[in-house]
Design a protein that fits this description.
The structure is a single chain. Helix content is 16%, strand content 63%. It is an alpha+beta fold. It has a single domain, classed as Porin (Beta Barrel), CATH 2.40.160.20. A hairpin with a 2-residue loop joins strand 5 and strand 6. The longest helix has 20 residues. The chain is elongated, with a radius of gyration of 18 Å.
Length: 187
């Protein structure tokens, strides 16, 4: 899985770039590591890495938020990641590595008076997939959708522990679910 290692390193480098661009109170960078559970039977669980930059509505549309404070709980995240899986059969090993580029609309639900915040979101994604089978390699570019739910535990004023369940629907080859844990840093 040389491609997946390269993609994971690329995604990690993106965290550094995203962190450097954040500069306002309602902007944040998030990095998540997790496990990918493929829908396709016969494929093994694999690694998942995601990084994203998020903007709250008070950053995007401050006047709208001042007119309607409920909008302050909405956010938009742009992310990039990599996940992989493989399968062994009598015909040899099949591997796939996917690099999703996603846009997520999030609704954040803070539990007032506690350090906990729940979130739910969905959005589109562009998925670049390398599929390697015995005797054949294939590069696919697909459009898909994802949904996610999670909870954040505020550790400090600007740092939170993130947990998340996520699922995507792209093609039957690369669909699946994810469990991620990470850190979100507000700047």
């Amino acid at each position: 899985m040389k491609k997946s290692t390269c993609l994971l390193l690329l995604a990690f480098a993106c965290v550094l770039v995203l962190s450097a661009t954040a500069a306002a109170a309602d902007r944040y960078a998030v990095g998540k590591l997790g496990v990918f559970f493929p829908d396709e039977s016969g494929f093994d669980e694999g690694p998942n890495l995601e990084v994203a930059m998020g903007w709250g509505m008070s950053e995007i549309a401050p006047r709208a938020v001042s007119d309607n404070p409920a909008l302050a709980d909405l956010a938009i995240e742009a992310g990039i990641g990599a996940y992989a899986s493989d399968s062994d059969s009598a015909f040899g090993e099949t591997e796939f590595t996917v690099m999703p580029v996603t846009l997520t609309g999030l609704y954040r639900i803070p539990l007032r008076g506690t350090p906990v915040e729940f979130h739910a979101g969905a959005g589109p994604g562009l998925y670049l997939a390398w599929i390697e089978t015995p005797g054949d390699d294939d590069l696919e570019f697909e459009i898909g959708l994802h949904v996610q739910v999670g909870a954040d535990l505020q550790l400090t004023e600007n740092l939170a522990l993130v947990t998340e369940l996520k699922a995507n629907t792209v093609t039957e080859d690369i669909d699946g679910a994810f469990f991620n844990v990470g850190l979100r840093s507000r700047f």
